[in-house]
Amino acid sequence: MDTPTTYKAQLNRRPVALVAVMLIGCAYRLPALDARIEALPQRLSEAGLYCDDKMSVPSGELLAYAPSFELWSDGAKKLRWIRLPAGTQIDTANVDDWSFPLGTELWKEFRVDGRRIETRLLRRVSPSTDGWIGVSYVWNSEQTDASIITNGVENALGTTHDVPDSRACMTCHGGRASIVLGFSAVQLARPARTGEATLDSLSANGRLSSPMKSPVFGGSTSEIAALGYLHSNCGSCHNDARSAANTAFRPPRNLDLWLTVSTLGNPSATPTYKTAMDRFIHRGSPEESPIIQRLTHAPFMRRRMPPIAVERPDNEGAELLRQWIRSLPSRANE
Ligand code: HEC
Ligand code: HEC
Q1: For residue range 151-181, what is the model confidence (pLDDT) as tens digits?
Q2: Least packed by Cβ within 10 Å: which of 61, 90, 153, 160?
Q3: For the stretch 293-305, what's the b/e string if a residue is b when 16 or more beta carbons lie within 10 angstroms of its beta carbon?
Q4: Which pLDDT tens digit goes with each residue over 56-69?
Q5: Could you tell me if residue 20 is left (phi over 0), alpha (psi between -120 and 50 degrees) or otherwise beta?
Q6: From CA 293, how far away is CA 291, in angstroms rounded?
Q7: Which pLDDT score is estimated for 301?
Q8: How far apart are CA 254 and CA 300, in angstroms?
């Protein structure tokens, strides 16, 4: 029999896993739906993302961008844009947690097999720390428009892609002072690409309150890729700045996989080295490393990681981490 690879397949075949998930699941409570979502346009065609009837050309004031380290979403292809209100700047006084002007919107489109499945929105609606709302617009099968669906969709448009419940967005996005996770100094410090915003272009165009030079990454290419992978896929929950007020999913505080600008030049100074090395990462032994175990399978009565928004393990991501862990000299050789 094939080993079931998806989370749903595991549940179907393993009653024990189902009971385990139900038990563990009880520990997580999603917050109430944010009432401010009601004021958003119900249809994507009315939300100002596109400037043409076919909904294929993004409006002129949107900036396209791509984070250096992507979140794995079961292989979905993603496009991203930001709209900063005209004449405003991002407050970058805190280099690791930027504060965005009121009215800022970030959009992320998910495509599976070439079809648009959902387009997610994060919008800043008030200056307070909980001033952001997140919601997903789910595309119709004709691909002519998308509508807000707040309680999630399983297997949207006949794919295996699940659209998350809007109450679940902040389990990951609410883990830092900045609700935005992929539009940051760490994620935009990259060589310029045509038509995409980067740290350099934002600095040059006066969009940052304190223009900054791209930080230089230290370490080998494979090390940077591995630390970046953990930052994007795990760091939103596993970081020691996560607010105690975020009650949906409470990861243990002993593991911090978030990258900060000041440690980019020196990998061994990163929180990942400080908190995970020799405890969750065993140098030279990927298969004995809990980080790899949690990413590729769910140990008994434990969840595979990340615990939401992912069904299929990311084999490429796991391989990248394995290679890095294999290359780490054991402590005796240091
Ligand atoms: C598993 C954690 C997780 C969940 C759940 C999640 N996101 Fe995200 N999201 C991320 C990460 C990490 C990024 C940045 C990396 C990337 O874009 O690949 C991101 C990026 C985004 C972006 C681009 C702006 C940014 O913050 O980088 C938008 C918009 C977005 N998410 C909206 C949503 C909405 C709306 C929901 C709920 C319907 C949601 N997300 C649920 C982790 C999550
Ligand atoms: C949505 C939040 C969230 C994300 C994202 C997430 N985790 Fe977790 N993680 C948790 C929670 C909650 C626990 C505690 C419950 C458990 O052990 O299953 C946990 C526990 C763990 C543990 C065990 C820690 C210990 O002290 O025993 C490891 C290791 C781990 N996660 C690794 C990862 C890795 C690797 C990733 C990224 C691929 C990741 N996590 C992404 C929420 C998250």
Answers
A1: 999 999 999 999 999 999 999 999 999 999 9
A2: 61
A3: bbbbebeeeebbb
A4: 999 999 999 999 99
A5: alpha
A6: 6
A7: 74
A8: 21
CA distance 156 to 161: 6
Which residues does a 6 A CB cutoff place in the pocket of ligand 2?
171-172, 233-234, 236-238, 249-252, 254-255, 280, 290-291, 294-295, 302-303, 305-308
Atom 21 (ligand 1) nearest CA = 108
Q: Say if CB 258 and CB 184 are below 8 A apart.
A: no
Q: For all residues of the chain together, what is the average pLDDT?
A: 90
Amino acid code (one letter) for 207: R
Q: How far apart are CA 204 and CA 182, in angstroms?
A: 20
Residue with the two structure tokens 């807000």: 148
- Give me the pLDDT at residue 298, please: 76
List pocket residues of ligand 1, CB cut-off 6 Å: 67, 70-71, 80, 106-108, 120-122, 134-136, 164, 166, 168-169, 171-173, 180-183, 232, 236, 306, 308-309
Residue of 223, 293, 230 lying closest to 257 (CA atoms): 230
